[in-house]
Each structure stands twice: as structure tokens, then as C-alpha cells.
């Protein structure tokens, strides 16, 4: 059995992610990663077996990296706001990564109907937290959550594809304004006001 390569798996994935961010997914190959690391293709092949295994590992690594930019230790609306600004940051600062993860089949994160936006992973927990914080029903918060994610994704796609040029602060403000309108439309916050009137 051949000995394990001296180049660790994480170093290979980090180099591949850097190539993806700098040059786009189309330029990420076993050969290009090996060249970036100044080594043969053997360590890459040893760790991942083939291009399919390598692609799968890269997609998971890239998603973990992106999630690190969007997740925070806070809860509820603060966490949701951080996720939104982090999402826009990736679209503006690292458009190749954004297009790979959120606009292509290669790095696809979500598949399914619109309900996946409010039921997947940490999103479901954020919906519950916002409902607790606001006093609104989980159903109303889910509608708000879904609608503002769709709006933010649209802005981010425009930015990542270069169709619009805008400062991140301008994008943040557009999302804040739309979030406020969507919250009013969904009736979030009115339950607390009504509770106060009934006491």
C-alpha cells in the first residue's frame, strides 16, 4: 500500500477554493491545484480518488467557507441580518464563489420548492427565534423569511453577475428597507402591539 502524501487534504481544498475564488470553477482541475501547490497530481488523486470525489469535497468545503461568513453567534433577527449581509458580501467580494454555490449546478446548495428556504438547517431555527422575539406566528415569519431571502438573492445575483454595480452599503440599505416592508405586510410585530392593548 502506498504511503500517504505529505500534502494534507485541507491544504489541497484550500488551494482549490482559492483558485475557484480567483479564477472561477472552470479553472479548478486536479492539474491546476497541483500546480498551485507546486506538487504532482498524486496527492490530490490519493486523497479524493477521482475528479468526482474531488468536486464533491470542494463543494462541501466551499459551502462551509461561505457559511462561516454568514453565520453568527447571535440569534433571531440579528443572526438573520448577519446572514443577509454576509450573502451580499460574497456576491460583491467573491463573485466566482457566489456563482458557483448559488447560481450553478456544480455547487448547488438547495433543491426543492420554496419551503426549503424556511425548513433547511439553521433557517428553521432562525424562523422559530424570530417568531419568539417578535411575537408573530411561525407561519407569518416563514412568509417574511422566504420573501426577503428571494429578494436578497435577486440583488446578490445581479451583483455577482456584474449586471449592477453598487456599493455593499447601498445593497444592505435596499434589503433593510424591503425587510421592513415585508415585515409589515406579514403582520410581524402587530401581535405584540395587540397583546398590549388587550391587557
Short description:
By secondary structure, this protein is mostly helical. The protein contains 11 helices and no strands. Helix 8 packs across helix 9.
> Uncertain regions: pLDDT < 50 for 5+ in a row?
191-199
Largest sheet report: none
Helix content: over 70%
What kind of oligomer do you see? single chain
Strand content: under 5%
Which overall shape is indicated by the principal axes computed on the Cα atoms? elongated
Topology as H/E string? HHHHHHHHHHH
* Helix run count: 11
Q: What distance lies between the first and last C-alpha atoms, to the nearest angstrom?
A: 75 Å
What is Rg?
A: 20 Å
Number of strands: 0
Overall structural class, as computed from helix and strand content, comes to mainly alpha
* Overall residue-averaged pLDDT value: 85
Q: How is the secondary structure organized here?
A:
Layout: H1 9-23, H2 30-36, H3 42-48, H4 51-70, H5 76-93, H6 95-102, H7 116-119, H8 121-134, H9 138-160, H10 168-186, H11 190-198
Helix pairs in contact: 1-2, 1-4, 1-6, 3-4, 4-5, 5-6, 5-8, 5-9, 5-10, 6-9, 8-9, 9-10
Structural summary, described in words:
The radius of gyration is 20 Å and the shape is elongated. The longest helix is centred in the last third of the chain and has 23 residues. α5 packs across α8. With 199 residues, the protein is mainly α. The protein contains eleven helices and no strands. 72% of the residues lie in helices and 0% in strands. The C terminus is likely disordered.
Amino acid at each position: 500500500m502506498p504511503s500517504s502524501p505529505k500534502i494534507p487534504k485541507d491544504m489541497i481544498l484550500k488551494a482549490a477554493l482559492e483558485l475557484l475564488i480567483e479564477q472561477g470553477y472552470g479553472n479548478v482541475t486536479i492539474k491546476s491545484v497541483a500546480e498551485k501547490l507546486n506538487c504532482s497530481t498524486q496527492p490530490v488523486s490519493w486523497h479524493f480518488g477521482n475528479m468526482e470525489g474531488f468536486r464533491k469535497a470542494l463543494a462541501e468545503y466551499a459551502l462551509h467557507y461561505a457559511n462561516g461568513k454568514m453565520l453568527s453567534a447571535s440569534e433571531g433577527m440579528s443572526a438573520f441580518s448577519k446572514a443577509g449581509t454576509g450573502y451580499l458580501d460574497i456576491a460583491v467580494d467573491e463573485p466566482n464563489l457566489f456563482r458557483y454555490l448559488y447560481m450553478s449546478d456544480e455547487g448547488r446548495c438547495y433543491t426543492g420548492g420554496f419551503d426549503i428556504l424556511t425548513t433547511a438547517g439553521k433557517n428553521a431555527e432562525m424562523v422559530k427565534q424570530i417568531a419568539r422575539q417578535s411575537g408573530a406566528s411561525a407561519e407569518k415569519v416563514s412568509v417574511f423569511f422566504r420573501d426577503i431571502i428571494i429578494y436578497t438573492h435577486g440583488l446578490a445575483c445581479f451583483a455577482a453577475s456584474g449586471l449592477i454595480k453598487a456599493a455593499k452599503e447601498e445593497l444592505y440599505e435596499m434589503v433593510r428597507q424591503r425587510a421592513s416592508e415585508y415585515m409589515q405586510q406579514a403582520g410581524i410585530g402587530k401581535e405584540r402591539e395587540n397583546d398590549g392593548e388587550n391587557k
